[in-house]
Amino acid sequence: MDLDDVLALAETSRPGPLELARARRVARAAQERYDAAVAGGYQIFVDSDLYDPLSEDVDEVTRVARAAQLAKQGTVTWTADRVRAQGAGRLCWSDEMAMIFGQAPGTVHLTPETLLRLVHPADVERVRHAVRTAWERSMPDDIGFRVVHPGGSVRHVRCHLEVFSTADGPAGIIATGEDVTAVELARQERRRLAIRSAMLCADLAVPDTVTGLPTRGYLIDEVDRARRIGGGTLVVVATEPATRLPDALTDDDHDELAAAIAQLLRTTVGDDATLGLVGSGLWGVLLGCVDGLPEAAESLADQLVDTFRSHLFVVRRKTLRLNTWAGLVHFGSGIPDTGFDLLVDGEHAARDARRNGTTVTVLDQPVAADDRTARCRSRVRRAVSANRFTLYAQPIVDLRLNQVTRHEILLRVRNDIGEPTAPWAFLDMAERVGEILAVDKWVIDHALALIGRGAQTSHYQINVSGKSIADPGLLNYVKEAIRRHRVKPECLTFEITETALIENRNEALAFASGIRQAGCRLALDDFGTGYGALAHLKYLPVDLVKIDGMFVVNLCRSPADQAVVSKLAELCHSLGIHVAAEYVQDEGTLELLRSWEVDFAQGYGTGRPEPIPASPKPQAQSIELELVLPPQHTAMG
C-alpha cells in the first residue's frame, strides 16, 4: 500500500471515533518504537508496509477485544438495551480484566453495582462521571483509578473508553484497561522527588543576615567535626569600639559596622578557614590540622589583631577604630571536649588577652572541664549580681486589627565597657552550664517590678527557659513575686522557650498548670526548632505559639518556609491556639501571614527594639516582657 492507496481509501469512507482512536494508538506506538530505535543508535534504512491482522471485516467490539488480548490488556463491555428502560443493558468483562480487578474469571456475576464496588471508594464518582461524559459526547476518553482486591490491596488501573456504534447509532461502551501500578508509583515518586528538590534548602547553615557569616551553632558543629577527624585550631577574635559609640547610633548603624568587620575578616583570612559569628563582637576562625599549623595559626591571629586595630571603619561618615584581642586554642583528635567547650575556651582566652594587656592568648590544649564550668558559672553569677542587664521593647502587630497591640521586652547584656549587646551567646552559655535559672529569676523579678509600678491596663508576657521550669521552686517564686509587686495575674502570660530541652515533662506540666490556676496565661516560643514541639501542644495548656524566625525571615523566597508556616498556623488554629511570627522583615511577608490568618507579627518590618526606662509610661496597648534566645540573625545586638 502506497500513499495513493491511502488517499483513495480515505476518500471512500469517513472514519468513526473508534477508528480515529485506534489510529492514534497505532501512531503513538509506532512513534515510540521509532524514538527508541534512534535513541539506541539504530539506523533506519527502509520503511516497510505495515500489515494489520485485525483489518478483516469484523465488528468494532471484536476488533478492540482482540487488540486488547494481544496487548495483554482486559476489556469491559457495556451494550445498551434500547428495548428496556434507559440505563439498562448487558455488562461483561474479559478474563484478563477480571484478573486485573483481582477476581478469578467466571466467579463474579457482573453488574454495574458489582463493578463499582470493586473500585476504590474515593474514585467511584470520578469513574461514573467519565463513563457518562464519554457516552453523552460519543467521544473516546482515558481515565485512571484504583481498584481494591479481595485481600485489601490497592492497584492502579488505566482504562481507555470508546463508544461503539451500529447502523442505528451508539450501541455501547468498551473500556480497555491495564494494571499500571508500577508506572503510577514511579510517577508519584518522580513527583515527590521534584517537590522535595524544590523545597529543600540548599544551604543547611542559615547565615547571619547582617554579616553573611555562619552562625554560632554552625561553627560549633564544624569544630566538633574537626576534633573527630584530626584536630585543629580555633581562633576567637574579640572586637569593641576604641571609644564609646554615640547614643544616637541606630541598629542600622551597628549592622553596617558588623558587616564591615565581617568583610575585613573574610579578606584577611581567605578561603582556607571556616568563619563564624559566635557572639556580639566575637568572631570565630577554625583552621584544620595541617603541617606547621600551630605556628601558622598563631601568626594568623597576630595578623588579624593588627589588621583590625589599624583599620579605619566608617560609621555615619566618622572614622572609628576597634580594640581587638584574640584567643587561640589548639586541640587534637578524639578529645572529650565538645565544640561548645572549645569555643568557650577561645572566648575566655580572648578576654584574658584583654585583661592582661596582650594581643593574643594561646592555649596549647583545652581547659580542664571543671575549671571551664566554674569560670562560666562565675561569669553568669557576676552578671546577675551586678545587674549587667537592660531591657528593650519591640512592637508586635495584631494582624487582625492591623495595629500595634503588644511589645516584647528583649534582654540585652552589657559588655565590659557598658554597651548593651545581643544576649544569645551569653544565654547559650548560661543554659549549658546550668545557670539560666538565675537569669530567669532576675528577669521575672525586674519585669514584675516594672509592671507593678505601672497602671496594669495592658497584658504583659514574661519568658522563662525550658530548663528553668524543671526547677520545682520556680512556680512558688513566681507567685511570691506577683504578690510582692502587686501585679494582677490576669495581666500576665508566661512563655516557655523551646531553645533548650524541657528537662522534666512532669515539672513542666506542673509549672504550666500552676501558672494557669494562678490566673496567668501560657505561651510557647521558638516553635518548630525545639525538642518535641508538637508533643508540647498535646499536654501543655498553651494559649499562644510563636513560630521561630528561621521559618519567617526568607518567607517570600522559600516555598519550604511557606509550607511550614501555613500548615503550622492551620494546626495551631485547629487546636484553639493563637499564632505569632517572628523576624518579619517586609510587607510581602506580612501579606502572606495575613493570608494564612496568623494572629501576630514581629520583626524589623514592624518596628525595631528600643531601650525602655526603669519606670516606663503605661502603654495604651499591651506589652510583652520576654527573655529570649533569638536566632543569630543580627550581629551587634
Automatic annotation (TrEMBL):
PROSITE patterns: EAL. CDD domains: EAL, PAS. This is EAL domain-containing protein. Residues 373-623 form the EAL domain. It comes from Micromonospora humidisoli. It comes from the Bacteria. InterPro entries: Cyclic-di-GMP_PDE-like, EAL_dom, EAL_sf, Nucleotide_cyclase, PAS, PAS-like_dom_sf, PAS_fold_3, Rev_trsase/Diguanyl_cyclase. SUPFAM superfamilies: EAL domain-like (SSF141868), Nucleotide cyclase (SSF55073), PYP-like sensor domain (PAS domain) (SSF55785).
